[in-house]
Design brief:
Layout lengths: L12 H4 L10 H30 L9 H35 L1
């Protein structure tokens, strides 16, 4: 079977497979990848832990007035914004370090 006309360049699996964590490269390469794996787990576990915490404390009485709700919303937004900024700066710095190399 011939390839369709819209395929301009065809790659083999060897050309696109990246030697990842279980590679024969140096230990420093594995350590960097292990850091990225750890960051990925943190990015998954923090929202999960927050959701579980909210679920477990759902019986706690929360003051139902506009000022308390506004303060809770502002605190949540502030923490989430800090979380996003820290990881954005970190991944942008990884990108820039990669470009420098």
């Amino acid at each position: 079977m011939s390839k369709p006309d819209y395929i301009r360049h065809q790659l083999s699996e060897d050309q696109i497979t990246i030697d990842w964590f279980f590679t024969s490269k140096k230990t420093g390469h594995r350590l960097r990848q292990l850091v990225l794996i750890g960051i990925g787990w943190v990015m998954c576990l923090i929202p999960t832990a927050a959701t579980v915490g909210i679920y477990l404390t759902r019986e706690t009485i929360i003051p139902v007035n506009r000022a308390a709700f506004k303060q809770l919303l502002q605190n949540t937004n502030y923490i989430f914004l800090r979380y996003i900024i820290v990881f954005s700066v970190f991944f942008i710095s990884l990108y820039l370090m990669n470009k420098v190399k």
